[in-house]
Amino acid sequence: MNKEILQPEVQKFIDDNLKTDVHRILLSKPKFNNVSQKELVEQIESKLKAKTKLPTWFEATTIYYPNKLNLSQTSSEITANYKASLMSGKAIVDVTGGFGVDSFAFAQKFEHVTHIERNNDLSLIAQHNFEQLEADNISCIADDGLEFLRNTPNSFDWLYIDPSRRDKNNKKVYYLSDCEPNIATETSFLFTKANNLLIKTGPLLDLKIGLTELSNVKEIHIVAVNNDVKEILWLMTKNFEQEPSIKTINFKNSLKQEFNFKPSDEVNAMPTFSIPQTYLYEPNAAILKSGSFQFVGEYFKLKKLHANSHLYTSKELITFPGRVFKIENIYEYSKKSFKKSGIEKANITTRNFPDSVAEIRKKLGLKEGGKNYLFCTKNLDGNLILISCVKH
What we know:
7-stranded mixed sheet; Rossmann fold; 3 domains; 31% helix
């Protein structure tokens, strides 16, 4: 951590150059004796990214940022606040603290937060930023999180862990057992230090595999922002042995789309099918990730277009956690049939369809964009169809 970056003249330069081409800065003569051009560019790039991802940090003064790669791996402010909403108590340990976005959110809900980060530089950065943000109930300790827990005599209300999803060669890993720390083998020990655990995993982890690796899972939260799944949260409670709840949430602008169910709901659901009616419904990404392909239709009393399409329809308009469209026409998948539509530009989505979007555009001679939406899927008879819609 180069404290010279915190000098007023350096901070002013960073703020004044947020829209400047960083390559010009890199190639220009050094501006300051003790701050390199590379360090300036790192601060500019990360602060610019924080404008939308971490607005509280962006608006605060004298924040020290890590490089943009480290910043891209941290939680966004919106997902951190959501995690904090799931917990409360006197004391929590953020076992893999990182830049500290989650710890700051937890500080609004707990009397005391312990932020553990084994990278000493990152620990110092987090501590400095907490001071700037006036979060005086967070203690920063530069240590390995598990070692800290093994050595402390204290117990806590909650532990939060975001295992690293990269191996020793910096390659991405996807199974919990390959992450560091390996939660699957450490669960018994962790429950000696707290009765409640919240584990964050990446969006690619299969829920069924996760449930085989983890025990005492009370809730699984699938969190999406603007229809992009960002993280999966595993809320674990000591000695909990009942069926877990699966909770999906999609933050879309100022809206919050939520849909909850249990695995048995999905197993026992009895979908009904129909040809496309007046409205078409596409579940948001969090629901699709959850695997609720039958129960979501049953819950909202919608008809399914095909067993494997995961698109739904109704005659009457309903409020739905996903995209909603008004169906205008239905065409066979052929250039001759579609030519009658007169559509030259469309946004294409495929569901249970053999051709790629690029192949469809080429075959139909369609440009990208516009107000028309084209869903390429199968009907009840398994025939390929094109559903022309407008967004509701």
